Amino acid sequence: MSARGAGGLRGGGGFGAAGVILTLSIGILIIVVAVPVLLIFFNAFWADGSFNVRDVIRVLREPDTYQALLNSLLIACGTTTGSTIIGTFFAWLVTRTDLPFKRFMKGMFLVPFMLPSFIGALAWKMLFSPRAGYINRFFMDTLGFENPIFNIYSYAGIIAVECMYLFPFVFIQVCGALERMDPTLEESARISGAGLFTITTRITIPLVLPSILSGALLIMLYSMAHFGTVAVLGIENGIFNIPTLIYERIHQSAGSFASIRTGTVLASVLVVSAACIIWLQNRILTRGRYQIIAGKSFRPMELKLRGLRLPLLFFCVAYICFTIVLPTVVIFLVGGLKTYGLPFTLENLSLANYKFILFEHKLTRDAIFNSVSLGLGAALITMFAGVMISYVIVKMKTRGKGILEFLGMLPFSVPGSVIALGVILAWSGKYGINLYNTVWIILVAYIARYMAFSLKANSAALEQVHDSLVEAARASGASMWQALRDIVLPLVRPGMLAAFFLIFLPSLRELTVSIMLYAPTTRTIGVAIYTLNEDGETVISAALAGVALILIISGQTLINRFTESASSGKG
Amino acid sequence: MFRKLSALVIAACFLFSFAATAAAAEKLIIYTSMKESLIGELSEAFKKKNPGVDVDYQSAGAGKLMAKIAAERQSGKILADLIWTSEVPDFYNMKKEGLLEQYVSPVSSETLNPFGDFDGSFTAARLGTLGIAYNTRIIKKAPEQWSDIFNPEFKGAFGIANPSLSGTAYMSIALMVNKFGWEFIEKISANQGKIGKGSGQVVDDTASGELAGSLAVDYITNDKIRKGASLALVYPPEMLVVPSPVAIFKGTRNLAAAKKWVDFLLSKDAQAIIAGEGTLPVRSDVALPAQFKLPAPADAVKRAIPVNYIELMAQKEAIVKKFTDIMQGKK
Fold first, then answer.
1. Is A520 an 8 Å CB contact of chain B?
2. Domains, chain A, ranges and CATH?
3. pLDDT (0 to 100) of residue A568
């Protein structure tokens, strides 16, 4: 990549600063983002030297692929319905009622956002696998049940786990809508004599519906393309969705033409459905924008829960304990066991596994090192590239910036497994550069995947920098470079930092992309956890998952501190 | 704030530096189906003996490794210098296709050789044995015969690793079918036996109680027994013995170091490590740890179900498919 980037710089030398920036931006996005995605479509629809749809249909009609498509759809629908209900209910509870400890609850409901769902799936496997899951065993061994009470290796299990980790998408959207909504609308309805039911169905729900729907569509998008949970709970029992089937095909017959073909066709299906979802979401949001009056600091009326106050409080606490605390505790406990299957007694528990993965085991140490350096590398590169590209999109008046915007946001709707597949097609030697089996291919994929995050954060920051500032600098005789360096960059630094963290943290817990791209020494933390679990090293994998949780949570806490102090310092 | 940023830049430089150091010393890459507990210890011991040589290994099921090799061949270069798995027919295949470097180690004369047509293309470095692992919390009476796994206490809870992933699983299924016919698999299926994932996972599932028993590889089971798992491993009279050959890829850039690895693997020290992990060495002058109750290597070879590897070579796909169909009730 660096070689071509440098070429772009030289080529653009004649146009001055603006030309250089524009050429570089377009070059980076085309090489990193557009080429891989285009190659997917090309490989899917172009066989034996001609455009070929019949073959695509044949691939889609193979029983395995067809089943995977159905499964993806089924799981996505189930997850969307479930998490929309959970998310909306809790959002209403923490914004519109007099539930005690609302602020704390709201914080807790956002915790699943930062927990990687495949680690959650591991924990739920330990709790609810039919014969060995701790909860099932408790019911069977202690309470004398004949059969396990729940089998996690099922569609219901997968959907339940996904719901737990995805509902914040709806929760956060609906919370926002309910908080921004003008309470006078409801009040006037009430003054006019409407009852609570009428107000809810005629005023509140129509007003927040766009937010609910847009959150639901996000979940749908995410769940269709979701790898981790299905990989941990489904593959073994023959439940595949599109990403897991792509992984299985590519991984098992590593690189044979037929498997790549199937992979690209499935990937195309994912891209197309993702595009439809995004389009639908945009429509809903633009239509809905007029209806939510984006006022500030209204205090919406609170519903008195009266007798239900304590039961609902208890329900929320129980939900948090069951879905957040319990799995986390199980991961750490199992990580402390000598070997899986032993009871949690003091003599079976130790810190030996943690010591082993942190100081002795080469695989896990490599994995931690790889994830951290990949995260830093991707975050830094994407942060700087993102600032430059956002500058073109937001500030420059050139033709073709629409394409840039489209290209930059493309990975936002392209699932990780698709990016990984595209990167394999583009960078495994066919076009001159072979990065396959090196850490660089993961880096390139991360850059493509996270570019959209950086663009969003940086565009937002850049939009607040008024053009007149740069114009003033230019009028006072500064060159374009000087103006950028001394005026624009210092002003957008918060946006750049936000972009950095928005990329660094997710890449620490990333699995979907790196699982398709790893080689012996280039495992990431996610890959190491997944493969250790697959190899039957449950306790080691749980210990590493525990370490990952500590890394992620402390990272997130640090960032929250940092951004809070930064914003309060500014205000 | 820029100090923070510069700290990040420095950190990113590490990323570049580790790519640079990777190319420095002589470095062997080994593809192996041996689990971490075994290959990790062996590679540490090797590095201690040969300070100039670094060892990297990819530990995965034989099926995945062969797929990886196939893909790497297409792109022109096999990344590994050595391969060490338990799927013997693969080695005959690779030999036929001229992928393997012939090397008769001077140490090989001291070892047991299960291959009649030994020519140095690959050398057995371990005798893997498979038995019935069972969870002692669930199964109170130790199984003695293979037919005991048709008993009701194993109903719905006997696992065999997926033969398309695990070389030992494939070899054992082929051996069983050879000895007992396909009825054996049909009876397992009738007792609702399960296809697991890798050979490690079925043992872990047995330890956890998800399975009551499984067709299990010796050292994987013994490693967990040593850590206190409620597991036991028994060998029925007809033994499953699967040699694990090691071979050098033709065209490796580190031929001298690769030869050192083969010599090392057959040496008394390495074989003692192998025995210490609870699997059979290929040398009879290595003491077997008493705790594992392993049969002596020569006895095991005598009790082993005989096999014709060259015949097996062509049958893999058919056997795996038939096995999967029977187990999934498709017949």
1. yes
2. 64-350 (1.10.3720.10), 352-571 (1.10.3720.10)
3. 54
